Amino acid sequence: xxxxxxxxxxxxxxxxxxxxxxxxxxxxxxxxxxxxxxxxxxxxxxxxxxxxxxxxxxxxxxxxxxxxxxxxxxxxxxxxxxxxxxxxxxxxxxxxxxxxxxxxxxxxxxxxxxxxxxxxxxxxxxxxxxxxxxxxxxxxxxxxxxx
Length: 147
Fold this sequence. Notes:
Elements: E1 18-25, E2 30-31, E3 34-35, H1 36-51, E4 54-61, H2 72-79, H3 88-96, E5 100-104, H4 105-111, E6 123-125, H5 128-137, E7 141-145
Parallel strand pairs: 1-4, 1-7, 4-5, 5-6
Antiparallel strand pairs: 2-3
């Protein structure tokens, strides 16, 4: 069966030469089976690649989304499953595209997670609110991802 694309006129084209974005991800809302925050990160990294823009993109996972940063063993223990972390490949792909992924230190402390529980190259900050404040003062635009 043929598919027909409907025309879509872009009335406000956006093309940036530079951007600094900080995603505050406290919970996972979903677009189908994909966390919306990861979908949005994929979308903006595609845009910056198309624009060839200078960029800094930071994703801070905290509160009810911290488990996204866990390795398989820690994820299984935290979520009481035996599947491993279903987000690990998505997170690795984002990091490969230049996204800095961070875990809130306060979230880690509450859950008793250590650095050995995390996926490779995940950075831990003091706490998400302090980090987001710091990034705002450095000129980052905050995108808050809530459920």
